[in-house]
Amino acid sequence: MSNNRARTPGNPILLVTFGIIAILIGWDLMSDYAEGVEPLHVVVELALLMTAAAMFGYVLTQVIRGRRQLRQMHSRLHSARAESRQWRERYQSTIRGLGAAIQEQFETWQLSKAEAEIALLLLKGLSLKEIAGVRETGERTVREQARAVYRKAGLSGRSELSAFFLEDLLLPEPAAMPADE
């Protein structure tokens, strides 16, 4: 887990601030009432006290809700990572073979090293902007390299690139396939 903790809705600093405000207004209200200050002043301070207390309650519920959501997200992330790890372990040889086959096809298409990397990131589903970020290059450069990949492969775009590699992997169940006549 990184040191950059996600901020939960309802900042705890606001919670402390509204709590302190409510306490100070309550203390001032009691001292003013004991001194016999005019009723309008007491009513105004009482309204401020109720507002601060309501805001304290609202921020408290937001902090609690945010922390609960964060725990749920961490739990789902942990489960997804475990499932992904199990899948990779179970199909490691298949994944290696598929990776080698993809690289072999990239060589057949005579893709440069940069174009092969772009093609692989496209297959992984990254956007052009995300690829530019990963490769620390401009989005325009990535777009041109992607066009070169499609041109060399004789494909029209990302969907055909994905289909080229996935089509045979996603065969229908044998029972669903038409019988030879």
What does this structure look like?
The two termini are 59 Å apart. Residues 1-6 have low confidence and may be disordered. It contains seven helices and no strands. The chain is elongated. The longest helix has 52 residues, at 39-90. The protein has helices at 12-35, 39-90, 92-108, 113-123, 128-135, 139-153, 158-166. The protein has 181 residues and is an all-alpha fold. Helix content is 75%, strand content 0%.
Model regions low in confidence, pLDDT < 50 over at least 5 residues: 1-6
Structural class by helix and strand composition: mainly alpha
Q: Quick one: how many beta strands? A: 0
Task: Please tell me how large the radius of gyration is.
Answer: 31 Å
Along the chain, the helix and strand elements come as: HHHHHHH
The averaged pLDDT comes out at: 86
Q: How do the strands and helices of this protein lay out in sequence?
A:
Blueprint lengths: L11 H24 L3 H52 L1 H17 L4 H11 L4 H8 L3 H15 L4 H9 L15
Brief account:
By secondary structure, this protein is mainly α. The protein has 7 helices and no strands. Helices cover 75% and strands 0% of the residues.
Features:
181 residues, elongated, mainly alpha
